[in-house]
Every structure is written in C-alpha cells, then in structure tokens.
Batch of 2 targets.
Target 1
Amino acid sequence: MTEEDKILEEVTAAEYKYGFTTDIESDKIPKGLNEDVIRIISQKKNEPEWLLEYRLKAFRSWEKMEEPDWANINYEKPNYQDIIYYAAPKQKKKLESLDDLDPEMKKTFDKLGISLDEQKRLAGVAVDFVMDSVSVATSFKDNLADLGIIFCSISEAVQEHPELVKKYIGTVVPTSDNFFSALNSAVFTDGSFCYIPKGVKCPMELSTYFRINEAGTGQFERTLLIADKGSYVSYLEGCTAPMRDENQLHAAVVELIAMDDAEIKYSTVQNWYPGDAEGKGGVFNFVTKRGICHDRAKISWTQVETGSAVTWKYPSCILKGDDSIGEFYSVAVTNNYQQADTGTKMIHLGKNSKSTIISKGICAGKSEGSYRGLVKIMKGAENARNFSQCDSLLMGDKCGSHTFPYIEVKNKSAKVEHEATTSKIGEDQIFYCNQRGIGTEEAIALIVNGYCKDVLNQLPMEFAVEAQKLLAISLEGSVG
Amino acid sequence: MLSIKDLKAGVEESQILKGINLEVKPGEVHAIMGPNGSGKSTLSSVIAGREDYEVKGGSISFEGDDILELDPEERAHKGIFLSFQYPIEIPGVSVSNFIKTSLNESRKAQGLEPMPAGDLLKMMREKMELFEIKKGYLSRSLNQGFSGGEKKRNEIFQMAMLEPKLAILDETDSGLDIDALRIVANGVNKLRSDDNATIVITHYQRLLDYIIPDFVHVLYDGRIVKSGTKELAHELEEKGYDWIIKEADQC
Ligand SMILES: Nc1ncnc2c1ncn2[C@@H]1O[C@H](COP(=O)(O)OP(=O)(O)OP(=O)(O)O)[C@@H](O)[C@H]1O
Ligand SMILES: [Mg+2]
C-alpha cells in the first residue's frame, strides 16, 4: 500500500455516529405480507374503505411484479415475508405538546442533534418527526394553520382531509409504477402530508425527520406535497437509522404536485446506517420520488446522500406545463462497501420547459457509485432545454464510479447538454492544505465541501451546515 | 532559528539534496539562487515536510527542536510558511474560507479559540490593503482561474495573514509584473521584524534590490557551493553560474 492509500484508508474509515436504539415499547404485527396484513394495517389506522381498496390494488399488482435488477448494484434481495410491516411506538395518549413526549424518544431527538425545542427556537423550522412508521410530533402546526397550510402526518390527513388525499395520492407515482412503489402503496404506514393553498408562500422551512428504530422493520413512508397555484414551499427531509445487524428495508414514495406558478424546493439529507466497514448490515434504500410541474411551476430536488448500504433513488420531474422548470442537485457519498445508484429523470412535455442536473458523486473505500439520469424530450416540448453536469470524485483506487446518461429527444428544437468529469483528491492539494496548518482529515473535508459547493448552496442555511458535517463524518474519522 | 546540518534527501533512486548546511537567525533574510533543477524547491519542500522526499541523512531543527519527525501541519503550526512556486488550485473553496480555516487550525494547535469573525475580517482588510488586493477576490475559488501573478500575490497575502516566524518564498517573484513585484516586496519588508526570518528563492537579482538579503547562497547540484552577501547576486547577474560551477567542480 502506498502512503497515500494508507492515509485515505484511515481518513475514510469512520464509524456511524448515529448508531443507537431507543428503548420504547412498540406495537408490532407479525412478520409477513398478505391481504390480511394489509387489512390489519388499514384497520389499525382506522382508514376509509377507498384507501384499503387502494392498498389492495397496489398489493395485487406488486405480487405480479419482479424486483428490478437493472441498477448497477448487488445485494441480497430482501425476503419480503420476513419483514414486519407495522411497528408503532406505543404512546399512552395522544400528544398535546412536545413536553408530553416519551423521555426515551426525547433522548433520541437529542442524540440526533435535533432537539425540537432548539429547532423551534432557533430556526423556526416546523418538524414532523416520523419514528418507524407513525408520526409522533408535529410542531408549529397552529402557526401554519392560520395561513391555511396543512402540514401533518399522512394518517392524520387521511382522517382530517380525506378529499385532498384521495384526489392526489397516486397521481404522480401510480401504484403500479415500479416494484417498490407498489409495495409502498400497499403497506405504507405513515409519512408527511402538506398542502399549501393558492398564493401562499410558506414562511418557514417544513421539516421531517425519519428514523428507523425497530429491528427487522421495513419503513414505508408516504409523502404527499401539494403546492397550489402560485404558492411556495421549501421542505426538508432528514433521515437516520440506528445500527442494526440485518439489512433494513426502506421503500418510500414521495409525490410532489406543483400547480401553475407554484414552486417546491425539496431537500433531503440522508444518512441511514450504511453498514459496518466489512459491509455487514445497513439500510436498503429504494425510494421513488417524483414531482409534476404545471405551467410555469418549478420543482428543485436537492439531496445529500451519505448513508445506506444500498441506495436506489431517482428523484424526477415531469415537466408537464409550459415554461416549467425542473432541477436536481445531488451529492452522493459512498464509502466502505456502500453502493449507490442514483440520479434523476427529467421528462419534458411542456414548451420551453427547462431542466438542470448537477450531480456530484464521491466514492471512497471499496464502494461503488453510479449516476443514472434520463432526459426525455417529448414531441410537444418545443424549445426544451436541459443542462447536465455529472462529476465524480474518487478517493483511493478501490472504489468505482459510473455514469449512465440516457437522452431521448423527440423534438428537434430542444437543446440538451451533458458534461461529465472524474477527478481525484490530489496529494498536492492535501500537502498545500497541510502546509497551511490544515491537517489531512480537515483538508479532505474542505476539498470535498468545495467540490460539492454548487449543491450545498442549494440547501437552506442550517441544513447546509448539517450536510457539511455529515460529509465530514462519512469520509473521516480516525486520523489525529 | 532554522538550523540545517548535512541534509541529504531525495526520491527512491536519486539523491537530490547532497549535504546542505544552512543557519538562519531571527531577523535575517537569506536568498537562495541556483540553476534550474539544482534542488531549491526540493529543499523548501523538505523543510515544510513533504512526504514525497525521503530524508536520508542530516538534521533540520527549528527553534532548537528537531522537526524531521513532525507532520507538515505541525511544522506550519510552529510558524513555518512556504510560498509555493506553483500554488495549487482548490475548486469551490473560497480564498476567505481557506484562510479562515488555516488560521483557526493554527490557533487551535496553540490552544486558542477561533478568531472572532469581526477581527478576522478587519485583519483581512488591512492585509489586502498592504498588498493592494481587489475586493471581490476573497470569494473566488482558491487559485482557480487566477493568473500566474495573482497566484503569487495570493501566497503572500496568506503569509501576511498567518504571520509566520519563517517564510520561505519559492520564486514568488516569477510571474509578477513590475508594479506587483514592488508591492509584494514592500509588503514583505513591512512584515519583517527582529523575530522572524525569510528565505527567498529567486533567479533574479532584481527582487533583491527590494528585499535586501543578509546572505546569498548558491545551490548547485544539491549543495550550497557558494555563500556571500548581496554583492554575490550582482556578480551572478553579470556572469551567470558557469564560473561558480567550475569552481565547485574543481573542489
Ligand atoms: N518528486 C520528484 N521525483 C523525481 N524527481 C524529482 C522530484 N522532485 C524533484 N525532482 C528532481 O530533483 C531536481 C531538483 O528539483 P527542484 O524542483 O528542487 O529544482 P529547483 O532548483 O527548484 O529548480 P527550478 O529553478 O527550475 O525551480 C530536479 O532534477 C527534479 O527533476
Ligand atoms: Mg523550484
């Protein structure tokens, strides 16, 4: 091993810092998946008949589907009959305020570094915290309600605003869209719901924290976000999972609807447990995220992905409206034996629709990272524009990065540009930093943050700081 | 302050430095000249602790401590600064962020708190004035797209911010225009004190008209073959290196 390799090996070996479990009683149903399990979930959640039907329909189409294996990832496929599909933390009574929160759960918040009180005070962030499957705390709801904004768990929305849920759920990601979305549609237990009324600019960042706690549970959140005409919302999603030996499945579906002139910013920082240095354990993250833009609407996806053993994720935009805009900004870090196959799809239907894709991959250890992007310009998308830039940064020579751009253009007036680069952190750069008193670990963090700047700049301030720390944590650790 | 004794260093097969002796005392300015490839940059890299070079013999001590076992950043924390002959680009990292990180890492090593943002800004402004650096410059990516001269000026700006005890300027004058050379040299002179020392590596006598050296050394084939005062630099300017090389080869 050369000196450089040794340094890289050391600094890229970091332990997962969020590995702990919360010791709270939980209400689980037995393992396995069949129509009865779905009926139990629906019944436990006191759902209307139409939703049960929706779930069953999804389940029936899922049964006929094959798990996809076209992504550039290798993993042992989960045994879907060996998963617990419903685990709710047992709460004695419904929470009146955050002070009523289970002390154990409060500790979890604290360890995550998102003490709700803090967040409430400092950032003015409304947090909807989803542990395992049930949303346990929503703050700031009243302030938002004054503006007509609905921000609650999807279960609550099903009870309180069934007409909205019924109207929009499954309209962007149909139940039969893909294997994981069908599974999610059948068994989702919770997630967030948000509706911004016409012309309302949501005055604060809306935020959700997901966390997988119970061993052997899969997490299937469902997020539905509707920005009515001329409205604006910025939504933050953060994810962590404690250390677990067996792989845990996470198959979420996120649907965004941006009506005419609306704008949605959706930011994710994901650091599910990536497995240990030998590649044991870790979360399987199979997520379907898609948004639809009507006339002059804009959706920006920003993601910083540092966790999970296996990630399969392509936040996409359907640019249906004329002059609509889709953006995708992504940083994906893989280390040790992590595998990520992520990217985006931009489907241009409307005239003058524009999309921008900035993808920054960082690979360390023996990991594999792939960018997979589809830019599809349909016949009617007169003057559509796309710009894609896909960069990869390699640390050491045992990792791999791959780029799979797919471009389909059916309208001659369209312009599509694609740029790609691959680079390494140079020994020169590290020595230069060292000479200025910056240790190797710090130097790598600095260089990596610089490399990701275009993406990090898209994140709201507090989130960007957190993302920088996460990048540092996932790439560093033991030097010094 | 800096004491180098019989330093031998090189890469795998080839020996580059073949027994260097150099004493630098506080307050002094030493100039090192010498033909291309004679080992000037290698010497500065070895002092700074670059691991590409293996030290095969001799010693380097700084303020009485043997520094050969120290990491480059630890040497930097002790107050050794190297202005690079070829400064490195770091995309996406702004000049101000880099300097802030650099300064605060050194402070941390000395057990100090990070410098308050206000003080830092004030200090940056002062030093920018000293080197006539334009405003928008702080937010640019470090050295990326900088002209040759801008890169050099940026090195000296960093030096001014870090206030090192020993500064090694490796051909900082190359690439500077006539005005920039004067500005940089004046700045360096202003920063001189009885407590710090400077080693300037240069090919041109002209710089030494501005930064007046106490000693001039000629490095040739990994050895200091001649030392003298500033008159030596004039002599070299006139006659070139041939006569020294001949002298050296005769020994
Ligand atoms: N990392 C390295 N690997 C191999 N050879 C090297 C290395 N570094 C320096 N050398 C060689 O050592 C010799 C001295 O190089 P150095 O850069 O120190 O010269 P210099 O005196 O600074 O020259 P210049 O005036 O051109 O800047 C050269 O022959 C160079 O090719
Ligand atoms: Mg040189």
Target 2
Amino acid sequence: MYKNIFLCFFLILTRSLSWGLDGKEALSEEENIYQKIANVAITVKGKEYPLSAFYSKSPIIIAQVFTRCTGICMPFLLQLKTNLQFIQTGKSYKILVLSFDPRDSESDMQQLAETFSLQNDSNWIFATTDEIETLNNSTGFRALWDSSSLQYSHEALLTGINSEGIIKKKLIGMKNREAISNLISEINHGFIPSYSIPGQNSMLNCFNYDPVSGKNKPGIGFLIMAVPALATFLLVLLLGYLSKGLYHRRT
Amino acid sequence: MNPQHLNILILFIVMLIIIVGVFVYVYRTSLPRNTEGSGQSGLSNPNQKRFLFFVILAAVLVILLTATLPKTPYYYFANEEPAKVVFVVARQFSFAMSYQSGKPGTPPPNEAIELPAGKTVEFRVTSNDVNHGFAIYDTQNQLIVQTQAMPGYVNRLRWKFEQPGHYSIRCLEFCGAAHAFMESSFLVK
Amino acid sequence: MAELKHKRVLSLWILTVFLLFVASIIMGILMRLTQGNAMKMDVSGFFEIMTVHGATMIGIWFVAGMASVHYLLHRYVRVTTWINLFAMVFTVIGVVMLWCAAFIGKFHAGWTFLYPLPLFVAWKHWATPVFLSALGVLSVGWLVWSVGMLVAIFKKYTLQQAFGWQYFKKVHQVDTPPFILITVVTLIGIVACLLTALLLLGLFFSEIASGNKLVHDALLMKNLTYFFGHTVANEILYLCLATLYELLPEVSGRPKWKNSWYIALAWNATMIFILFAFFHHMYMDFVQPEAMQVIGQLASYFASLPAVAVTLFSVLAFVFKNSIRWTTTNLLFFLGTMGWIIGGVGAVIDSTISANVFLHNSLWVPAHFHTYLAMGSVLMSLAFFNWVVFDFYNQSEPEKISRLQIILLLIGGFGFLLMFYLGGAYSIPRRFNVYPSQLSIGSALALAAAAFAVVYLIAIILINIRIVKRCIKIFSSASS
Ligand code: HEM
Ligand SMILES: [Cu+2]
C-alpha cells in the first residue's frame, strides 16, 4: 500500500518532469537498435557465463541498476515486477538485472533479489559483470558518477534482446504496461509499426497500444478528441429539451 | 506510369464518363422536345428502383472494402527480419539517413545509403521538428510507398525493392518554405 | 418576401463573396502559373498565397452556405437578422486578420496550420498569434450563428421532429421538411468541428503562453486539426444540399419534396459517419492505431452512401423524363450534383488505405476536393444566389440560359480538375511551389491547368454579372 502510493507519486513526478525534455533526449531509445549486444561475461551465483548463454535460450530484457541507488532503481524494479505480473503474454523471456556499479558484489545482487522476493523466480536473474564499460557502450547506457552524493546519475533503461542477441527495443524511463508488453512482443519477433519517443509527447497521449489483447486503449488524448462531439450532442439534447413542447403549445 | 497508378486513373476516368453520361442522358430526357407527345412522365416505381440503386451501391462499396482493407501498409513484411535498417531523421529541410542511429545530443548521422535488391529493408522514420513526409519514389519517379515523419514518434516502414537503381525520397507533408526542396535518395543494388 | 434590411445584408454578403472568390481564383491561377514555371514568385510568397487561397475559399463558401440556409429558414421558423449580421462582422474581421497575418506578417503554414509548424516561426512573430486568433474569431462567429439557428429550429420542432424520427413510426402527424432535417444534421457537424477548432486553438495558445515548455502530442493535434479541417470543408457541401432540397423542385415548378423514413434514416446515418471520416487524413501516420484507420475507411465509404443513394437518386429521378423548365438556377443545381458525385468518386478512391499509400498528399487530394467544391458546392451556392436575386422582388427567374456560359464553365472547370487528377496519377506532390526536374510533367500539367482555370474564371464572371448587377441595385436603392 505504502509502496504503491509512493510509486504513484513518483510516476506523476517523472511524468510532469518529462514535459520539458527537448528533442535531444528523444532519440536515445533508438540508439544501438538492431545492433548485436556485446557478448560480455556475467556472473550469476558465483558462476560465470557468456551473455549469449542466456539469450540463445530465450529472449532477455536487461535492466541496468546499482544496489546503493537512492533514486530511480528501486521504484523502477518494483514497477517492472508489478507490471510483469499483469502481463500474460504466453511469450518467453527472462529479465536480467545487471549491476553497473563495480562496488556491487555477487551477494549485493542476491540481497537485491531477496528485497523483491525474486530470489526463487526462475524468470529473474540477478548478476554482475566485470565488463561494465563494454556492456554500457553496447546498450547505450550512460551513468555519471557524482562524487558529492556518492551516487550515479543515470537513466532507467530496459534493453530487449532477441534470441539472436540483437537489440530489438529499448525503453528509457518509467514505462507503462503497454510499453513493456510491446518490448516483450518485439523480442519475440513481433512487429509494432510505430513507437512514441520519450519526452516529446508525454502530454495528452492519444492511444496506448496493447499487444497482449491487440487492442488500443484510448488514452487521455482520445478522450479529449471526443469532448467536442460529446459536448455538441449534449448541447443539442439540452436545446431540444428546453424547448420541448413549445410547438404544441403554439399550435 | 506504374500499373497501380494507371489502374486508379482508368477507374476514375471510367466512372467520370459513366457519371457524365448518365447526367447528360437524364438531362436530355427532360427537354420539352423529348417529353412532349410521348406521354411519358417521370420514373415508374421510383421507390423500388431507389432501393435497388441503394443495394447495388452498398454492395459495390462492401466488395471494395473487403478487397482493399487487407492490404493496409502497416504490417508489410512484418514476419521477416530486415536485411538492412535505415534510421531516418527528417528536419527542416532535409533527411538524415544512416545505418546507425544517432547519439543523443549530437546531430543525426547522415551517410550515403545502399540497399540490397529483393530483400526486406526497414526505415525507422522520425522528425526532429515539424511533421514531414517520407515518400519513396521509384526509378521511374513514381511514388511507391510512404509514411509520415512525426515528431515524438518513430514510424517503421518495411519494403522490398525489386528494381535496382536510384530511388528518391521526398517530403510530402508541408513543412515550410523550402518544403519542395526537401529531397534525398538512395541506391538499390 | 424578406424585409429590406435583410435583403441588404444578403446582397452585401453576395457581393463580398463574389469579390473574394474572384481574388482567390486569381491567386489559384498564379499558383498554377508558378508551378508551371511561367512566372516566378518567392518561396514564402507562394505559400502565403496558398494559405490565403485555402482559408478564404473555405471561408467564403462556408459563409455562402450559411447565408442561404439562413435565408430559407425564414420560411419555417423565426430567425433573427442580428445573428447573421454578427456572423458577418466576425467573418469580415477574421478574414482581414487572416490576410494581414499572411500578406503583412508573411505567415505561410497553410490554412490547416498543422501543429507544430505555426510555432516554428519563419515569419513575423506576431503573425502566428494573429492567424490563430483569426481562426478563433471565425470559429466563434460561426459557432454563435450555428447555435442560434439550432435554437430557432428547436423552438418550433421537437428533438424527434428535427431529426425526423417520427418517420420511423407507422403514423405521424407533424412533417419535417427535408430542408430542416438536413440543416439540423449539418449544424450539428458544424458545431462539433468548431468546438474542436476552439479546443485546438486553446492547446496552441497554451504552448505559446508556456514559452514552448509545454509540448503537446503531435498525433493528438493532428487528429484535432483534421476533425476541424475535414469536417468544415465537408459541411459546406451539406449546407448546399439543404438548399438544393428546398429549391430545386420549386424553381422547376414542381411540388416540394416530401420527407420519408429513408431520407430521415440516410441523413441521421450521415450525421454519425461524417464525424469519423476525418481519420483518413492519418492513414500514413503508422502510429495511429489500426482500428482507427479501418474506422476511417469504413466511415469515409459509408458517409457517402446514404447521401448519394438518397440525394443523387432523387435528383436524377426528379429530372428523368419529366418536362423541366430549365433556368440557370436549376441547371446549376443539377451540374453541382454531378460535380459533387465525381469528386466523391475521387474521394472514395483516395480514402482507400491501400491506394492512399501512393495518393496521400499527391495532387489527387486537391483534385478531389476541388471537384466537389469548385464544381459542386460553388455551383449550388451560385444557384442559390441566382434564385435569390429574383426572389427579392418576388419574381421568378427568366427561363433563358446561356449555353456558352455553361460550356465554358464545364470545359474550364473539368479541364482544370483533370490536370490535378493526372498530376496525382503521376505522383506529383501537392503543396510544391516548383516541381523537381524528375517531375517536370507536373509543370506542364500546371500550365494547362492555369489556362483552363482562366476559362473557368471567365465563365464564373459571365454567370455572375447578372447577380452582381442586381445585388448592387438592391444595395444602393435601399441606402438612398
Ligand atoms: C479555378 C479555381 C481555382 C484554382 C485555379 C485553384 C487553384 C489551387 C491551387 C493551385 C492550389 C494548390 C495546390 C497544391 O497543393 O499544389 C489550391 C489549393 C486549395 N484550394 Fe483551390 N483553386 C480554385 C478553386 C478553389 C475553390 C472553389 C475552393 C474551395 C471552395 C478551393 C479551395 C482550396 C483549398 C482548401 C486548397 C488547399 C490549400 C492548402 O493546401 O493549404 N480552391 N487551389
Ligand atoms: Cu519536410
């Protein structure tokens, strides 16, 4: 409950902040699309694997976080978890939560998994890697170290990799359920004809495409579009009602 | 002219001739010299004929709908993996096209594009400022396919170019004074 | 039949419309000449003219439709003259502001002012707010007028009667004249699209006021733009059709058309479909959900069906093998119907998604809308003008019509239009001031179109001389 309220508040905040974003941010979701992900070595529960060992089995979504984050990482993961619980695509995918902080150890990551009660969920993999730089370059992830707050300033990034290791779709920021189902559909050979880019069109978005049901849920923009027509019909009803019976009275 | 353009023009001209013909014919039946003496007046059974007319018209429209609706462009080649991907950023008044997507904060990359013939390619089209069009003209300068470049969105257009040669890109959404000069091209080999 | 004040207002109206019409046709010819490389115009100048031509043409013929409906409504309900005067003042102010924004302020974002182009200022800074305010002034003026007409109608007809719903029952006592029914249906569409215009302008101004911090969704803005632009252009024709239903039988010396269940049904259906047809402007925006695209095609197809099945058939059946007393008025109505139907065929082709892929924003688009405007609603409005200048004196129009005028009109009009259609088929883009060398055929077509347009202009002037003369007479006689 408490968590949800916090999340809502956070969402509203990030939403409203993104109004002011300019075009520079806009295309970062397009960066490195269709490129092959760097096949870095990652460590899971003490064992080392190449990244390809995961994506060749099933498509993966990489979430890059760090455990000492006091900012976006925790709400981001929480929201991702909640959203995924509601998305029943029947499609296969795994979520790879990877630390981009060299200070994070293997056990830090396991602790993180436990915080979200995901330590026994086979769909979630918590891992570290020694090739952080290579991976960041490959996904286009940017983290700036701020020595005064001892924090990284970074964006919330999800990178969708298909089973050939190709980056098919990236999501930056806190995304809604539709966007995440789009991502899952895309790494499973789905095709979505169009994407909105973060930042530019947060205000009054028209439609949200939901690949699970294949339907478009009208967003707030759609409601706005319908307002004039609805207002007209109400007005006509009102006018008609107000003058009802006048005719018969006169004749 | 490409066959599809020609067919549409012919369809239109045929309809034009039929409509003008009917109007001229109906007009002539109303002239005094044609109505006098013949004792005829008006259409017999108008309501029955009106219903027939309505049914025929509705049937034609329904047939046209069922024939054309499955051919929408949104999922062209959706089940194939593109052999090449081109990132297109439109802005007043040029197209930046590249195999690489740009880095945020830097101008979009722009390079000469060469695409393989007979293979599916994908254009990821967006705009940096206002609405633009992204229309592909074939080697005979006929428009073959298009999408819009809308700020805030990426539109994905997939196509297979069979004919090798130079293809032009034109902006078909009015975007300001130099709109007509907003042009680019690529080579299909 | 109408009082003097009313006649004066109307004749002033007609004179204004005619003057602006000739000016706008000349602008059209200049555009075609530029596209044909026969003359040079600087780039911004061309698009200023394009903006003004589009906005003025839509404005005057909308207003002409309003004037005719207002005049004929007098026969059934009590309408005030002040509301017409109000609309007229607002229209004049709006048009003057428009011309100032374009010709002094160099505003040239097109009359559809597609977001966010007007905010990418490439002209004087005041021009964008003035242009947008001009549209606001027009919208408010026309909105007040439309609501006023609706109120007047509802004072006499109940809701059910106004929509003709009593015809769906076995027995009914009250008759709704087709004119009233069509007017109500049209006014509803007009109110909806004008409210949309105001909403859209509000969103524009909110962005300007926030110093461009508040960015709107380009897709939403485009939808709103075409809900307004497409619907307003379409309703022009429906205003004319209302006039046609009322006057065509009358001037031909035949009994009035009666309403019936299928006419009522057809127009009720049209009212709904017309509100969804505008989606066809977004076909090439792949981000628009596919469901909307399909609805767009369905609505575009079926919006035409009832109106065509009922109106076209009625007009043809009305003339077929009936001795008609042909005058300029009913001939123009008849030809206007033909132009409307031909434009409709062009529109149905273009509103087919799979054809729109290569027709979208080509010259096919101006081709079809010029057909139903220049050879459809313009002719119907001229028919009304022709009739009304005689009706002022309770005279009926002399029977003589000039064959030459009609032939010039048809050759000029359809020749001009055919060049647009051919341009569309040759993939020539619309809204290009010059055509690239690979598309040089567009320039040749443009030159031919300019020549035909001159013929059309001559025909229009010839047909209008009589109207103008009488209007001047009415106007000046009243003021003395
Ligand atoms: C013979 C008379 C006319 C001529 C020569 C003419 C010419 C033109 C030309 C050359 C264009 C630009 C086409 C392009 O996109 O390249 C145009 C656009 C337009 N015309 Fe006309 N026109 C005529 C009559 C009319 C009439 C009667 C109407 C309406 C009642 C009208 C409404 C418009 C509109 C709304 C546009 C769109 C402007 C835009 O794209 O922003 N025109 N016309
Ligand atoms: Cu452009």
